[in-house]
Amino acid sequence: MNVMTADEAVRLIHSGDHVYIQGSTSVPETLVEAMTRRGHELRDVTLYSGFSVSRGPAPYCRPEFKDSFLVDTCFVSNNVRQWINEGYGTTTPRFLGEVPALMRDGQWPVDVALLNCSMPDSEGFVSFGVSADLATAAARNARTVIAQLNPNMPFSYGDPVIHVSKLAAAVMVDDPLVEVPTPEPTEREIAIGNAIAAHIPDGATLQIGVGGIPNAVIRALKDHKHLGLHTEAMTDGVLPLIEKGVIDNSMKRVYPGRSVACLALGSKELYRHMDYNKDMIFKDVAWTNDPFIISRNPRVMAINSCLEIDLTGQICADSIGTRLFSGIGGQHDFVYGASRSAGGKSFIAMTSTTNKGQGKIKPVLTPGAGVVTTRFQANYIVTEYGAVNLLGKNLAERARLLISIANPADRPALDAAARARFGYSYTRLNHTGV
Asked: What is the C-alpha separation between 216 and 193, in angstroms, rounded?
């Protein structure tokens, strides 16, 4: 190994380079800080990233570095969100599963990849651990790979491995991974979780996201049998189901007997559970999120969330009006994959109102809001007031169903908006009993 200090390693970055920074809970912070210290020497360095959970704002997101580093991300994470919304950085719209293709075909050229890796195994391989997602493609296509070797990083099996001989520079660190606590579901989230779980059969393959609602769903599945896991993000929430044998992956057709994900975020308990665990496989997001691979499993249940939805079923999950909040992630990939799966279903879940009491079911989306899941793909929509299935329903029927799960205080205004927009096709539903 070519071991050196972080400051020495980042000398391999030059003005005009395109640099990938690993994400999930494994941002290589020692290398990033060292790169930022060179900010006054560098110009026009493009920084690529995806979904990541950082300890705070990225150090390069400061006005004095606006000409040194251009942030271009496919997911607006917490560490760059303000910087992008202030107009200093930008985002490239792309289904997450298709981002690796940008690296492979040179649309996102990768000159340098900054990784956070495990210590070497007996054969000299290190693992990217909790982040195979975009890191796999970045490492394979980068001209130069620089890695932190970190005893806190679990060694995960599958795609996220690289031999130390492929590292242009290795920097020894002892940096704990960011931990993402499991949120305690609220009463509203518990109601949503129960409503979703009631539609999930035994033997289903789960894709489940992050947050209070997914954890509420997981808790409600404790009496199910022979569930499988093929997901984007592995979280602490699934550990009890794995330990109790509820998730045994016995009915899956893709990697039967093993849980599959492309990234992980959680606590030290999750990271310890992952370490050298051959029952868990981590793959390039181009593979995990491929709808045609997803659909090979039977009864795929895709469970995702959103910020708002309009009366026709258009779903926004990435922005609040024009303000970018996150990204499309794998929502589309799994919604489509579930639609192709035998017995598959997709669920978009949300509380009926924001914490400030504003309704999330709206006559039309907020101006500037992005459509992440189209009305042509909408299946089950779930709030604390129930679950409705929009599949095969016309616009008037959709409006009626969505209003039925809106906050009761919002229903009169939504009903008036539906009458004005859809006319007799909507009002006649009162007479037909639909």
From this structure: 5
Token pair of 339, please?
Answer: 């639609």
**Residue that has been written with the tokens 């205080």 in this structure:** 409
Q: Compute the Cα dihedral for 390, 395, 396, 402 and give only its sign.
A: positive
Measure the CA–CA gap between 383 and 191, rounded to whole angstroms.
Answer: 8
Strands 169-172 and 144-149: parallel
Q: How many domains does the chain have?
A: 2
Indicate the pTM of the whole model. 0.93
Measured distance CA(310)–CA(365) in Å, rounded: 5
First-to-last CA distance in the chain?
69
Which strand (E) or helix (H) includes residue 20? Answer: strand 18-21
Tell me how crowded residue 118 is: count the other CB atoms within 10 A of its CB. Answer: 24
Q: Specify which residues 389 forms β-bridges with.
A: 380
29-84 pLDDT, tens digit each: 999 999 999 999 999 999 999 888 888 889 999 999 999 999 998 888 888 888 98
| Pick from 1-10, 77-86, 299-308, 349-358: least confident | 77-86
Cβ proximity of 6 and 146 under 8 Å: no
Q: Are residues 294 and 240 in the same domain?
A: yes
Is pLDDT at 246 greater than 60 in this prediction? yes
CATH number at residue 387: 3.40.1080.20
Instruction: Examine the domain organization and report whether 316 and 367 are in the same domain.
Output: yes
Q: Is 226 left (phi over 0), alpha (psi -120 to 50) or beta?
A: left
User: Quick one: which H or E segment has residue 220?
Assistant: helix 212-220
If asked whether residues 135 and 258 sit together in one domain, one would say no
The C-alpha atoms of residue 7 and residue 256 are separated, in whole angstroms, by 44
Question: Is 65 a member of any domain?
Answer: yes
Q: Are the C-beta atoms of residues 52 and 27 closer than 8 Å to each other?
A: yes
The whole-angstrom separation of Cα 327 and Cα 329 is 5
Q: What residues act catalytically? A: 232
Q: Which residues pair with 20 in a beta bridge?
A: 48, 113
304: left (phi over 0), alpha (psi -120 to 50) or beta: beta
Q: At what angle do helices 395-404 and 411-422 cross, to 10 degrees?
A: 180
Which range marks the domain in which residue 58 is found? 6-172
3-class secondary structure, 376: coil
Q: Which of the four pLDDT bands, split at 50, 70 and 90, describes residue 431? A: low
Query: In 247-358, where does DSSP find H-type helix?
Result: 268-274, 285-288, 291-294, 331-340
